[in-house]
Every structure is written in C-alpha cells, then in structure tokens.
Amino acid sequence: MVRTFRGESRHKVDAKGRVSIPAGFRRVLEQGDPNWTDGLNPDLVIVYGDEKRSYLECFTIEAIQEIDAKIRRMPRASKRRKALQRLYNGQATPTNVDETGRLVLPIKLREKIGLDGEAFFIGNGDTFEIWKPETYDELAYDGLDEDEDFDPDVDPSVYLDGDEE
Fold this sequence. Notes:
- By secondary structure, this protein is an alpha+beta fold.
- Helices cover 28% and strands 23% of the residues.
- It has helices spanning 23-31, 61-72, 79-90, 107-113, 133-139; strands at 8-12, 18-20, 43-47, 55-60, 92-96, 102-104, 118-123, 127-131.
- The longest helix has 12 residues, at 61-72.
C-alpha cells in the first residue's frame, strides 16, 4: 500500500533555512525512495517553479519519476512538454532529509516564497507543499475555476491531470 502525504502543520525555520519535516511526511519520503534503507536519509525533489508559484512542491523520488515518464510520452516539440520540462527539471532541486529529519531550504527558495521564521506544510496525497503561512491563507484557493485549454500564463502542472496511460 502506497502511503500518502496527509495533514497540515507549521514548523519553525531557522536562520540557516533548516525546517523539520512532519514525521508522517518523512515516512512517505522513505517509502517513495527506492534507494532508501534504515540508516539512510531519503531523497526528494523540490519543485519551485517561476513567479506563478507561491509555494514549494515536494516529490518523492517515485512520484517525480512518474512525472518524468508522463513528460517523455508527450511529443518532443510540444509547448506543453517544454513547459513541463522547464518546471519539473529546470525549476527544481534534488535534496534529501538530514539525519535529524529536517530539510535545508536554500536561500534562493526561501526568498522566492518569502519564507521567514515559520513554514506551513500541507499534504496533497502524492506531494506536499511548503508555504509562507500568510501566503497560504491568502492564495490557497485562488485559480481553481480556470479552464482546461493550454494557457502559457498558468502553472503547467495543471496539464498532468486527466492524462490517460
């Protein structure tokens, strides 16, 4: 049975960008890393995106591999494929959980979402997001009424929904 990221919580971010990951989220990261064994720290990928994203989206290794496979099935020259490649390959950073169960968020990522002092974590099933708490409260439900046609001004991850294998 595949574990999923569920729940929400707030955690302190220290001056070096270290933030504790909720314990349940760490178990999902461990299960979703094919190379993880006891004593190792699980790997993950943080997708930060461009200015349209106000949060960091965190993927297990298996989840990002599924995204990569979907992108590879798209026509090589399609605008959707190029947008998705830029998002999930270019605007992303691989990292791992440290030995104390924390992520070290680079300053570039903290500055991008305005993270200072506290981080808000929310589970999304196969991913989890990290937000500045005030931004989450303000924007969490914006944009849910957009249409399904390609629009270069929206976050390209919307095109993964409904992809049939």
